[in-house]
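S1.2 Input.
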Amino acid sequence: MDWVEQVERRLRKRNQILFTRDNLCLQKLLEEISLQSHRVLVEWAFACVERPLEILDSHLPEEKRPRKAVEVCRRWAAGEVKMPEAKKALLAAHQAAKTAAPEEAALCHAVGQACAVVHVETHAIGLPMYELTALVRGTGLEACREPVEKRVAEYLDILQQCRIWDRDGGNRQPWASFLLDNSRPNKERLLAEKRRGMENKRQ
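S1.3 Output.
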């Protein structure tokens, strides 16, 4: 099955999110996410979230909650604020979706997912799941293939840049202590291993 067919099925079912972890166009990205440190994924999420923010600023100029969430969660990643304050801000970004049209609502959720990467790596794939949903809703199913595949390629390129930058010491910004600890396993990798184990049991 083609990834567009997967999206079409979800559209017919009136699903809010048109992409899931199982979508074929996200498999390479998921694999790469599972290999990165938490810190690299945080940097990647903040780099990728700029496009959704720009669209929201253009479409909903009075709506400040998504951009505020990113500002507060950047400070969380730097160790300047604690999780409760950051959680309140990122939940407000999700709340902004309630009164928005479908495309903008998906972008609000994309921002919330990007902010939540500071908490745990498994939120990283949430950003593309929602941003690509917004893209499909904006372009229509018939015209979505090229822009979606281009954006997925951009996600991969940005992730590679963030990995190299972190490896080579280019990122010297302050980090919260929990993001400096590279000994903890990547939660996305653990989730993938758990899913594979469940699939093997069913076979």
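S1.4 Remarks. DSSP finds eleven helices and no strands in the chain.
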